[in-house]
Sequence to fold (254 residues):
Amino acid sequence: MREDFVLFRENNNKPIRITEKSNKELFQRCQDHWYHKRDNKYLQNKKWHQKLSLKFLQNKKSEPRYLFIHIPKTGGTSFKFNVLYNPYMNKKVAIYHKFNYPPKNVSELNIFKENKKMFTLLRNPTNTVISAYYHFNHLQKINFSDFCIQANDMQTKFLLGYDICSAYKVTNKDFDKIIKLIDEGKLTVGIQKTKRMAAIYNLLELPLDKVDNYILNKKIDVKYKLQDISNDIKQHIKKTNIYDNLLYDYILNA
Fold:
């Protein structure tokens, strides 16, 4: 078991060292989060004979009514700590999160047939692509320019059940179906550090004054700065992430 953790507050690079002696309650929360002790992982890839078992049917009845679709590199880790592991949180939430590499080119989640109260987080698409490259490059081992060429609509693809690096091409029909789901209130979407987060807190019935603002895994010595990425590359990313940008702007301006 870990003996200490380092947290940060939003807009503050000063580390906060958490030990059992300094803050027992927060330390336990860090422990639980680090070892995913309270995660309800949501998987749909059960075989047909498993779905007929008594154990599966019993678990089905007690499944969480809420589903967090955790898109990689959108701030979901800190969100999980601040909200889902929050001591004032009283909703049971399943979490759908994955990163396969090599990616699978088949969908593993069909949000259009889910009957759960679904929610997710979006992030500025250009920043997401850049962050994903530096976070996952140790697996892919390709240069930044090549990654930017092949990266497209990661966030929209993930909502459709595909890996963020899959070769799947999002269509107009896909996009329209997602927008319809949002408009019907079946999928709630938030964007960190914007008023759009209130919709998720309201959905989960978590008072705003009880939401923490810790940041986990903050990289003080990151290998890149956004201002150092050329405008040409940023413009290229924007052009190749049409649906992600449309979705992000739709939520941001709603």
